[in-house]
């Protein structure tokens, strides 16, 4: 487990000259951010989930959320002017992103999708976000995520 994968995400980050660190960990099915935070020895709040969701017209979108919080889909729908937002089924999310669920990165996705990021993520000095492969996170400044993805900032977290 010493070799870092080359993914569309890491290739994009390198091409854009974004400073990031690479972190491998032992992936566990359905372990989520609890496992990655434990394996890396970091606060789960700084591990950011990349969620592929869709609106009532099946238009896909990306939501970036703290690992220890959930997305209020009702609040998100209200804030972005949609009737409903629902998580995509794993196979649909895989088709939209080009990544497998559990290894979904917001960088280098197959389809260009609007990105929504929980505002408080910007308060963190460093975040850990999926690098495009199961068991692989990249560490970076959240302001670099903001500059690269130009997400719409939202407040839709719930505990």
Could you describe the 3D structure shown?
By secondary structure, the chain is an alpha/beta fold. It has one domain: YbaK/aminoacyl-tRNA synthetase-associated domain (YbaK protein, Alpha-Beta Complex). It is 26% helix and 29% strand. The strands form two sheets. Strands 1, 2, 3, 5, 6, 7, 8 and 9 form an eight-stranded mixed β-sheet that branches. Strands 4-10 form a two-stranded antiparallel sheet. The longest helix is centred in the first third of the chain and has 9 residues, at 32-40. The chain is globular. The mean pLDDT is 96.
Structural descriptors:
single chain; 159 residues; alpha/beta; YbaK protein; two-stranded antiparallel ribbon; 5 helices; globular
Average pLDDT figure: 96
**Broad shape:** globular
Question: Any guess at the CATH architecture?
Answer: Alpha-Beta Complex
Question: Main beta sheet: strand number and arrangement?
Answer: 8 strands, mixed
What distance separates the N and C termini?
Answer: 33 Å
The helix fraction, in percent, is 25-40%
CATH superfamily: YbaK/aminoacyl-tRNA synthetase-associated domain
- The helix count comes to 5
Q: Count the domains.
A: 1
Strand segment tally: 10
């Amino acid at each position: 487990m010493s070799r870092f994968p080359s993914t569309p995400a890491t290739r994009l980050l390198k091409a854009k000259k974004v400073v990031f660190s690479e972190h491998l960990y032992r992936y566990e099915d359905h372990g989520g951010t609890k496992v990655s935070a434990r394996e890396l020895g970091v606060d789960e709040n700084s591990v950011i989930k990349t969620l592929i969701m869709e609106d009532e017209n099946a238009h896909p979108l990306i939501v970036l959320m703290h690992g220890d919080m959930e997305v209020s889909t009702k609040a998100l729908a209200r804030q972005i002017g949609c009737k409903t937002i629902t998580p995509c089924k794993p196979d649909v999310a895989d088709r939209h992103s080009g990544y497998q669920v559990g290894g979904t990165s917001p960088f280098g996705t197959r389809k260009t999708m609007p990105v929504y990021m929980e505002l408080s993520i910007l308060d963190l000095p460093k975040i850990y976000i999926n690098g495009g492969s199961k068991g692989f996170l990249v560490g970076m400044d959240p302001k670099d995520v903001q500059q690269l993805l130009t997400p719409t900032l939202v407040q839709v977290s719930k505990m």
